[in-house]
Amino acid sequence: MLIDTHCHLDFPEFDPDRDEVIERAREQGVTSIINVGSNILSSRRSLDLSLKYQNVYSVVGIHPHDADSFDKNAEDAILRLAENEKALGIGEIGLDYFKNYSQKDSQLRLFLYQISLAKKLNLPVVIHTRCADQDTLRVLKDTMPIKVLVHCFSSGLEFLEEVLRLGFFVSFTCNITYKKADLLREIVKLVPLERLMLETDAPYLSPEGFRGKRNEPMQVRLLAEFIAKIRGLTFDEVAGRTTQNARDFFGI
Ligand code: NI
Questions:
Q1: 45 Cα–ligand 1 center, Å
Q2: How far is the CA of 202 from the centre of ligand 1 (A)?
C-alpha cells in the first residue's frame, strides 16, 4: 500500500485519461492519492476530484507564484474550499524567491494568511520553498505548533537538520533518481523513516528513464523501491512506514 502525497491530477495534462491514471496507480498499489491545488481554480478542481474519486483527497491553497493577485475574494474562496471534509490540508503554500513571479511582500502576506487559515481549521500545511529557506523557517517557527510537510525537498543539509529539529515531515519526489542528484540521495538517507513521505508531483519530475514524459502517481512504487535500495531497507518497510506517516499526518 502506497500513498502519493502530492500530485496535480487537476492539470489539463490529465484531461484525456484521468480515470486510467488513477486506475493504473491503484494497480501498482498506490491506494490513495492526495491532489494539491496551486490556485483557486486548481484547488476547486482538486476538491471536485476528491469528491468524485473515493481514494483521492485534496489539499487546497494558493502557490506563492500567485500571491500578487491574492485579494479578499480569493481569501473567502480558499476558506470555503478548505472547510470541505475532503480537503485534508492547506497547500501548496510558501515562498519562492527563485522565480519571484510575485513580490516578496505579497508572498509573505499570502503565506501568513494561509497558515492562519490552517490553524483556524486545524489542518496541516504542505510547504513549497525555493531559495527562501530562512524566511520560510522564520514564518513557520513563529506559528508553531503547526503540522508541516516540506514538499519536494530540494534544499541542503542545514535546512534538513532544522526542519527535523522542529518536528516537520519531509517528502521526496522522483527527482532523487536523477543522475546528478547525488546530494539529494545522501539527504534521503538521513531522514528518519518516521518523518518521510513519498510523492510524485505529477505531471512533473518523471523518474530517470522516463524524463520528458508526463509523470503519474503510479511511479510512487518506483520511488519506494529506489529509496529501499539506497537505504538498505525492504520495499515493505519503506511503503509501510511512509504510508502510515501520510495517514497520520493527513488523518486518512
Ligand atoms: Ni506541486
A1: 15
A2: 8
Over residues 65-104, the pLDDT tens digits come to 999 999 999 999 999 999 999 999 999 999 999 998 999 9
Domain with 181 in it: 2-250
How much distance in Å is there from the Cα of 92 to the middle of ligand 1? 7
Backbone dihedral angles phi then psi of residue 30, each to the nearest 5 degrees: -85, 90
**Measured in Å, how far apart are the chain's first and last C-alpha atoms?**
13
> Which residues place a Cβ less than 5 A from the ion ligand 1?
201
The per-residue pLDDT for range 38-57, each reduced to its tens digit, is 999 999 999 999 999 999 99
**Contact present, 103 and 70 (Cβ < 8 Å):** no
> Residue 64 belongs to a domain with what CATH number?
3.20.20.140
pTM for the model: 0.96
Task: Report the pLDDT value the prediction gives residue 197, as an integer from 0 to 100.
Answer: 98
pLDDT of 229 reads 98
Residue 36 grid cell: 494539491
- Residue 8 Cα, ligand 1 centroid: separation in angstroms? 7
The total domain count for the chain is 1
Return the percentage of the chain with pLDDT > 90, whole number: 99
**Are 124 and 149 spatial neighbours (Cβ–Cβ below 8 Å)?**
yes
Interatomic CA distance for residues 78 and 208, integer angstroms: 36
